[in-house]
């Protein structure tokens, strides 16, 4: 495992991998985005790949980079775009430039998305790379038309910072998680002549039986992010920052078939602030029973 320590020893706030090359991009409190290469000398299977620095997307006075801490960076599913959100409320969408030196590959700014009045804390692309949904400390989520650089829809309803959101792979649902101790599930109910129109279908705040809060408040869990995730096939939604009524901290698993309440929970020794599924479908053979399929997930300080 390689140790990446190149953001002026400041916090690394986000990490994402290019869907084709597998090369990572990191974002940090130093106002920069770093592009990395992954290399291996092709030796034994036990050899550890090495991360090598390729380029820095930094503010140089030209207006094509962030001038504040970069909180989130995400490649589009098609691999042609790179979106980032910062403390100043700005979102920059870059387009891959294939000719010339590798250090210039992501220098071309495609669109600047400006509406949020406070920090952009999370963002995610739609499955077809046409739209972006962003979450902000201004209590809103915004759906953007990435090709036009325009707002498609604002999602309101939270009473405090929205610290994470997740877009269902089938684009039927968007989920958001806020420090107001609630998770909102928005369903796509298009109006005539429109592709999408999201309306709030569920607001998860308390356990319906015991009437205790599902999520931590900021006092007991002072976290910058609360990043949730859908499984790659959209069957499950995983929510961090959960409180188990009897056993401490948990991450809730929501079934797509009933998004009004958690189906079960994963109880851990400490609170989680970010979760993410591995995109690879693993198969495990059990004796006398064929294959069992499932996705692995990670929880903890993943950005």
Which helices and strands, and how do they pair?
Layout: E1 12-17, E2 24-28, E3 33-39, E4 50-57, E5 70-75, E6 81-86, E7 90-95, E8 109-114, E9 120-125, E10 131-136, E11 141-145, E12 150-155, E13 162-167, E14 173-178, E15 183-188, E16 198-204, E17 229-230, E18 236-244, E19 248-255, E20 264-268, E21 274-285, E22 291-300
Antiparallel strand pairs: 1-2, 2-3, 3-4, 5-6, 6-7, 7-8, 9-10, 10-11, 11-12, 13-14, 14-15, 15-16, 17-18, 18-19, 19-20, 21-22
Going by helix content, strand content and strand pairing, the class is: mainly beta
Q: Name the helix and strand elements from N-terminus to C-terminus, one letter apiece.
A: EEEEEEEEEEEEEEEEEEEEEE
Major sheet summary line: 4 strands, antiparallel
**Spatial order of the strands forming the largest sheet:** 1-2-3-4
Query: Helical content, roughly?
Result: under 10%
Pick out the low-confidence regions. none
Number of discrete domains:
2
- Total number of helices: 0
What oligomeric state is this? single chain
Count the strands? 22
- The span between the termini is 17 Å
Strand-residue proportion: over 45%
Shape: globular
Gyration radius, rounded? 20 Å
**Integer average pLDDT:** 87
Features:
single chain; 303 residues; mainly beta; Methylamine Dehydrogenase, Chain H; 2 domains; four-stranded antiparallel sheet; 48% strand
Task: Give an account of the 3D structure.
The protein has no helices and 22 strands. It is mainly beta. Strand 10 (131-136) and strand 11 (141-145) form a beta hairpin. The model has no long low-confidence stretch (mean pLDDT 87).
């Amino acid at each position: 495992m390689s140790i990446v320590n190149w953001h002026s020893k400041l916090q690394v706030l986000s990490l994402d991998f290019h869907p084709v090359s597998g090369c990572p991009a990191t974002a940090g409190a130093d106002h920069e985005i770093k592009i990395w290469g992954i290399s291996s000398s092709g030796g034994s299977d036990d050899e550890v790949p090495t991360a090598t620095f390729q380029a820095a997307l930094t503010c140089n006075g030209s207006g094509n980079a962030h001038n504040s801490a970069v909180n989130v960076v995400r490649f589009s599913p098609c691999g042609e775009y790179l979106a980032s959100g910062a403390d100043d409320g700005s979102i920059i969408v870059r387009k891959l430039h294939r000719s010339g030196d590798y250090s210039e590959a992501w220098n071309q700014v495609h669109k600047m998305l400006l509406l949020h009045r406070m920090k952009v804390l999370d963002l995610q692309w739609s499955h077809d790379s046409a739209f972006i949904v962003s979450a902000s400390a201004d209590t809103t989520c915004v759906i953007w038309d990435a090709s036009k650089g325009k707002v498609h829809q604002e999602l309101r309803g939270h009473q405090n910072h929205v610290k994470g959101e997740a877009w269902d792979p089938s684009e039927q649902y968007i989920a958001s998680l806020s420090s107001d101790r609630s998770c909102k599930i928005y369903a796509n109910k298009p109006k005539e002549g429109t592709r999408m129109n999201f309306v709030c279908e569920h607001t998860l705040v308390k356990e319906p039986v015991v009437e205790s809060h599902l999520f931590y408040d900021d006092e007991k869990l002072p976290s910058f992010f609360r990043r949730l995730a859908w499984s790659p096939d959209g069957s499950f939604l995983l929510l961090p920052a959960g409180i188990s009524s009897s056993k401490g901290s948990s991450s809730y698993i929501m079934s797509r078939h009933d998004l009004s309440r958690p189906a079960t929970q994963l109880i851990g020794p400490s609170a989680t602030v970010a979760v993410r599924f591995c995109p690879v479908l693993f198969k495990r053979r059990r004796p006398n029973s064929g294959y069992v399929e499932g996705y692995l997930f990670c929880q903890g300080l993943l950005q």
